[in-house]
Structure formats: C-alpha cells, structure tokens
Amino acid sequence: MSTTESPDPANPTDPTDPAGVADAATADVLVVGGGPAGLSAAVALSRSLRRVIVVDAGHPRNAPADGAHNVLGQEGVPPLELLAAGRREAEGYGARFLDDRAVTARRADDGFQVTLATGGVVRARRLLLATGLADGLPDLPGVREHWGRSVLHCPYCHGWEVRGRRIAVLGTGPHATHQAQMFRQLSEDVTLLRHTMPAPDEDTLEQLSARGIAVVDGPVARLLDGEDGALRAVLLEDGTELPADAVVVGPRFVARAELYEQLGGSRTDHPLGSHIAVDAQGRTGIDGVWAAGNTADLAAMVTVASAAGLMAGAALNADLIAEETAAAVRAARAG
Ligand SMILES: Cc1cc2nc3c(=O)[nH]c(=O)nc-3n(C[C@H](O)[C@H](O)[C@H](O)COP(=O)(O)OP(=O)(O)OC[C@H]3O[C@@H](n4cnc5c(N)ncnc54)[C@H](O)[C@@H]3O)c2cc1C
C-alpha cells in the first residue's frame, strides 16, 4: 500500500471521488473499528463527501450472541448481519474498508499516520477510535465456552431469552447484587453465588431476601455441561452442584485504547473498568482524535454506540469544515 500526503485543508475533497478511491491510503477521517459506532460514523462522513477509510479487525463484541436485541426495527438481528448491512451502506456512499488491525498511531504533518498489522500505512487528517472494549471474563472453566449464550452479563441483551429459568449470578464484585436484582425481574429462580465478592451488608442481604434471591457462600470451581453440551449446573469448590440454565457474570470492561495511549492519551478509570473520556460529541483530550461506542462508553448498547458514532461523525465533519474555512479565509486574504 502506498502513502501520500494528506489532502490540502484549503482544497476540500473532490466530490467525484469522495472516498479517495484513487488513493485508499489517505483519508479525511480514519475510522478504526467497524462495529455499530464506526459504521455509523462512516455513513455520516461519507454522506458528507468526506474521504473515509474504515480499518476493521472484524471481531465485534457481540459476535458470540445469536441476535442483537433492543435494536429498534431490527429486533434480534444476527450481529454480523447488522454490521454487514451497515458496511454495505457506508460503502454505497464511498467509504473504503480495510480488513486489518491498526497497530500503531502517531502524529504526522497536520494529521495522523497509522500502521496496519499487514504492513500498510494510512494517513488521515482526523482519527476516530471506535475500537470497542474487551470483556475481562472471570477465569473459571466453562465461562468462556458459554459466553454470550448461557453465560450472560446484560439483562437487556439476553435477559428475556432466559426469563423464568434458573439463573445463578457469579459474585466477583459488589455489582453482582445489582445484577441479581435486575435478573430477578425476569425470573423467580435467582441465586447469588458469593464466590469472590465482598460480603453484602445487612441492608443488601435484607433486600435480596425480600425478593426471594438465595445467597450461596463459597467459591465456585467450574461450570458443568450436560450431555448435549448445554450448561447444566455450577459446581462449587466444596462439591455442591447447583443446577442452572444461565450464569450471570460481571466482566471487567476494558476499552481498547492502545492507539490513544500511543498518541499520548491515558485511560480513565471507571467502576466497571476503564475507557477513553470524551465530550458529548466524542472529542477526546487529544486534538484531532475522537472516540465513540464502547471504547468511550462502557455501557453503550448497539443503538447507543451507533448514535455516538453518528454524533462523532457529524462533529468531525464540522471540525474539518472549520479548518477548511479558516484556510480558505487565509488564502483569500493572501491573494
Ligand atoms: C455477548 C454480548 C451480547 C450483546 N448483546 C447485545 C444486544 O442484544 N443488544 C445490544 O444493543 N447490545 C448488545 N451487546 C453490546 C454490543 O456488543 C455493543 O453495544 C456494541 O458492540 C458496541 O459497538 P462498538 O462499535 O463500540 O464496538 P464493537 O461492536 O465491539 O466493534 C469494534 C470493532 O473494532 C475492531 N477493532 C478493535 N481494535 C481494532 C484495531 N486496533 N484495528 C482495527 N479494528 C479494531 C473490532 O474487531 C470490532 O470489529 C452485547 C455484548 C455482548 C458482549
């Protein structure tokens, strides 16, 4: 892949070649990550005739799930189907996609230079980090194998699917009591497994008891499968087996912020993990760098991530317009 200089800010994008088809390595905006956040930004930017390149490693967070829920008008759509449709829409407006992983980012000239795992280089005037987050799962045999199907974290993503079933909540932090109460809305058979969480205080125990949520002390050893491979039970270290159809866990949500850190930024701690701090439009503390979706908002579901991407795309376009207007004024005054 070749590299060329960034476009002249005083000389806006050629409307006949909005995506920079002539040179896929240079962009007005490089979007890193092609999940709901990155794709929504790519649609908004390419509809504004911006040269957009999306680099996507192809591992969206909800890929293990059968369907994406609470996506209005597309309830239960398979996650990869939704993204494929979004990609087609962005491509239809001229966005370019590179199936690759961005590995380094640094400032170059007036913009940024990003290298890719396969060795390519992309230059862009602005950077949008839509890289999502990594779910740090409890290190117990069976958890990873059932993640996204019968090992769950979010009542809005998959709660309805386990309504009325036997649900065990794995306590790894104080948040587990909140999760137990959330899933109690969906089933009368909820058990809180204390595992490694701190002892709940008297008020919390009273609330759990009042809602009929059993509390079981002692560490969990592993999850047990039935003959068909489906989750069957939770095995405690003392040998007790607790039958369960679903296990709720509290992953540590770690935003993928490596590129941001390479550019001099730092992660912001959050009670549930760490993320990139942004303003309401997705602007980070580093000039020219925006972030949207789970990398900036750990709790963002598909539609929220998508909305944040759209907002960031619009703000990026406005920022580029401001730069181009200033350059045009300077040029007009000079000449
Ligand atoms: C099991 C599970 C089920 C869920 N179910 C639902 C649901 O039913 N409804 C709902 O609304 N939400 C659901 N969610 C939440 C949903 O996954 C997120 O809201 C959504 O994925 C956030 O979108 P995003 O664009 O921020 O990140 P992602 O969708 O994770 O996309 C990020 C993309 O960036 C890519 N990437 C990362 N780093 C790089 C890099 N350096 N270079 C290039 N590409 C990179 C990744 O490979 C990925 O393709 C679920 C989450 C999980 C874990």
List the helices and strands and how they pair.
Elements: E1 26-32, H1 36-47, E2 52-56, H2 79-92, E3 96-99, E4 102-108, E5 111-116, E6 121-129, E7 133-136, H3 143-146, E8 151-152, H4 155-158, E9 167-170, H5 175-184, E10 190-193, H6 202-210, E11 214-216, E12 220-225, E13 231-236, E14 241-243, E15 246-248, E16 252-255, H7 258-262, E17 268-270, E18 273-275, E19 289-291, H8 302-334
Parallel strand pairs: 1-2, 1-6, 2-3, 6-19, 8-15, 9-10, 9-15, 10-11, 16-18
Antiparallel strand pairs: 4-5, 5-6, 7-16, 12-13, 13-14, 17-18
The structure holds flavin-adenine dinucleotide (FAD).
Flavin-adenine dinucleotide binds at residues 32-38, 55-62, 64-65, 68-71, 101-102, 130-132, 135, 148, 157, 256, 293-294, 300-303, 305.
Provide an overview of this structure:
With 335 residues, the chain is an alpha/beta fold. It has two domains: 21-135 and 252-334, FAD/NAD(P)-binding domain; 138-248, FAD/NAD(P)-binding domain, CATH 3.50.50. The protein is 27% helix and 26% strand. The protein contains eight helices and 19 strands. Strands 1, 2, 3, 4, 5, 6 and 19 form a seven-stranded mixed sheet that branches. β17 (268-270) and β18 form a beta hairpin. The protein starts with 25 loop residues before the first strand and ends with a helix. 41% of the residues are buried. The model is unreliable at 1-24 (pLDDT under 50). The protein binds flavin-adenine dinucleotide. Flavin-adenine dinucleotide binds next to α1, β2 and α8. Residues 32-38, 55-62, 64-65, 68-71, 101-102, 130-132, 135, 148, 157, 256, 293-294, 300-303, 305 line the site of flavin-adenine dinucleotide.
